[in-house]
What does this fold into?
Amino acid sequence: MDSWVCPVPLRDSPNIVMGHGGGGAMSGELVEHLFLPAFGASAAGGLSDSAVVSVGGIRLAFSTDSFVVKPMTFPGGSIGDLAVNGTVNDVAMSGARPLVLSTAFILEEGTTLASIAHVAEAVGAAAQIAGVRLVTGDTKVVDSGHGDGVYINTSGIGIIDEGVDIRPERARPGDVVIVSGDIGVHGVAILSCREGLEFGTTIRSDTAALNGLVADMIATGADLHVLRDPTRGGVAASLNEIARSAGVGVSLSERALPIPPGVRDACGLLGLDPLYVANEGKLLAFVDPADADRVLAAMRDNPLGGNASIIGEVVAEHPGMVVAKTGLGGTRVVDLPAGEQLPRIC
Amino acid sequence: MKYLDEFSNPELAKKLLDQIHAATTKPWAIMEVCGGQTHSIIRHGIDQLLPKQIEMIHGPGCPVCVTPLEIIDKALAIAARPDVIFCSFGDMLRVPGSESDLFRIKSNGGDIRVVYSPLDALTIARQNPDRQVVFFGIGFETTAPANAMTVYQAQRLGITNFSLLVSHVLVPPAVAAIMESPTCRVQAFLAAGHVCSVMGTEEYPPLCEKYQVPIVVTGFEPLDILEGIRRTVLQLENGRYELENAYRRAVQAEGNLAAKQMLDDVFERTDRGWRGIGVIPDSGWRLAPKYRAYDAEHRFEVTDLHTDESPICRSGEVLQGLIKPHECSAFGKQCTPRTPLGATMVSSEGACAAYYLYRRLELREVSGV
It folds into this structure.
């Protein structure tokens, strides 16, 4: 690493800070400016959530993800559901049918076996619902105080059928932007139980495997250009990444965003923007406008897409930027989040 | 909170906008004092929908922005100590000091915790009797009562490992300071509704009279802000300069008496430095002598720490409404939310950050950002 010169975006912090894991600009810069140069010639593939590799004429989607959520169980799910659904969704967002997963558990000394069993059962149940098999795994234990009970890494492999070509670079002006349902739910659910905040109603995480929904969308025969599950960094981060990948602009309509009242109120109270809050059971789709109605209909027929709605379109103007039309008729830029969203002082 | 939706209703907003357009015959410069209002104006694009003659000037009312660099440096010095658990609201963590910020201190091993209430810091103090727990007590009249309550409770419960790093500031002296400036362009104010919900409105009529300036107490939802602007314009057009309360659902003339009593008990008025502006006489609070034992500056002996601000940062002029954020040559270049020179850029409520986040598209043509 002696030859490595710290590039501009990292110069302001010699250490890892929490924002490097926030799914925003800092996370991207860490990969782009530290990992990829360090990997050198060994690095292959783009920066998508899953890599597409051809093996014997078959296109495989391969993805890995680590789950460090605290607490390990929360309203609507647990770290076990997340670990399966997160990787299944990353694989599915390239249009693949997820088939197999690996699971690696890093356990903290002192964690009760009962809580680990609860998480493990959740892994098994989520895999069954998603229709994937758990084919290999690993277990490590770290000293007490060096983990939050359990961390899980999962990797997944899926097959992309012929004729399916879904990737961020395919977004093009005119595309309709669809979200599969209410946004900001998972992030607020986690925040409410982690910080002991209550917002009048219990907000449950939306964690879910979206491969069935994706299969229904592909089955319409529509020209799907991009799929993305807006997890860390929320809808704002995903749209920005797609806009930059494809060199197009995205025009959002704030009034069309499906934000449940509980999420809106919680975000209002804490000074957070729902566009930046994490989701774990939603997808964004960029679709040829001629096919939008049929894709929407198929999504709404699926329980995980019942509240699917059009939230914007791809435009040729302001390439690489996401611009929202506000509820009152003004406009604002929706930027990539810098790091973690922080509750405001007042 | 369901009823807040009514205060974002586009049809009602259009009616108010129509009335503002109809009433406006001359150019007017109106300052919204509070950073929360600035954020709301920019986020909802309200300034784009107003008549061209109305200029909204963004005031100094962002608690994060106006906290002096020197206090940030004191916070960093205290937070870096191994014996300290340093508690803060979230948005202070990114505010740059001279050489670091709380995030970086945390990544170097500092025990820094984000809390949602200062009373949480007191709980942490009770749970960690062998550590010193410090709460970063910044903000306007809105956050001060809860911080005062924390010190009061600490004393009442005999908790000795807790202290407060205090940097509280007050709105009315800032309004007076802005009006006293020889370069002042402000012709009317939207007063911060939540400040008035604590302190009441009695401090404002003398300011209206002395400076012959209309002040309208205003809330934070889009319709609140439009109603505040509408009333302000009507006063300006009619040559009136009175205090009006356009936020009656939250503000009573006498304010919150219990909160005021707590403030009177725990704090005393003092001269305060404002980041980018300088010292404004009698514009802040510090702990009263009987609570001085809870003053973190004294406990950790950082009272002698002095620092200077960046020479190219013009946040002080932004905070006084003398320039717009993009008129600073560093805006969007040396100074961005990632590399802020002044706190108006780093705080999510800061005028520079609001312009950078939401208005970059139109500013790109103007300033090349």
In short: Chain B touches chain A through 47 residues (CB under 8 Å). Residues 29-299+309-358 of chain B form a domain with the Rossmann fold fold (CATH 3.40.50.11740).
